[in-house]
Amino acid sequence: MPLSRRSFLRSAGFAGLAAQFPLRALAQDDAPPPAPAPAPITNWDGSPLGRILLNVMTEYVEPSWRARPTGQYYRWNDVVGILGATTGEGLYTSNNTWLQTATGYIYSSWVQPVNHIADNPAVPIGEGGAWGMVTVPITDVRSGPSDDASRRQSLYYSNVNRIIGLEGDYYLIQEIYGYQYWIKAAYVRLIPPEEIAPLSPQVPTELKRIEISVQEQRLWAYEAEQLVFTCRVATGVAEHPTPHGTFHVIDKRHGQRMTGGLGQGAYNLAGIPWICYFNSTWVATHGCYWHNDYGRRHSNGCVNMLPEDAKWVFRWTSPAANYWDFHTGADPVNGSPGTEIKVRY
Fold first, then answer.
1. DSSP-derived secondary structure letter, 103
2. Are residues 40 and 106 in the same domain?
């Protein structure tokens, strides 16, 4: 139908407006903004149980410190079933991961990821001994191979110790300095040599390096310029900082007791796993079972890591650890140098 002059002018006016102000109803700029990506779960590995690491830990109805409390855990060694992990309002900016229990939520920085495997077979131990990992959240060790023997101390999930004998259903543990005690064999998984064989042994030592950032609380492993591994860490607090500089691995130990400190800061920790010492004051990368607080400074100078992360570094770095010895030292003069470790701010 022919347009009247008035209709034509009206249509032309709209066309002019459209030219100046294009319709954008379907334009990308007007699309609703994408939903923000969910915050990552940073401090949990999916373990079914958690060992409480505080004298008193409060549980909340929601994953927030502002939520209503539902109860408390009082003993340092309580073990709680973990239904899942989520994110919420964290106490520390480095960690917003909360753990769901049957009755509420607890904050993950003070919960050790654990399992409960209490049916490991008792295996005769050869002359060379073996390394074994504790597979229950907590167990007492004894002065003799009997449930009636006096208690010596407690060991915890992921502890790694040298096993030198079997009597009945108990293994005999011997520490590097000679201290001995007994542990129920069902609570220990023997680690075969092939499980901790060197990683990337074909890559020359001089092409491998570890970088650690105190500011970012992260570790990176490189083969030449290729990143092959990264993880969160917990380096030394201000009073006991991790030294900065370029170092090399000087001594490696599958597991060992560490002691030190004075007064309230004193510690005596058995079975610390996967140790790589890298300076003359015995600072090391190693696994940790007394906190789950990675991503911020926490240690007395060492570089704390999740045990599985520390195990990877232990296997990948040089020198290759001798399974049959308590420790393996680097020997660059005779062709066994230690991997370079750079610690920076």
1. S
2. yes
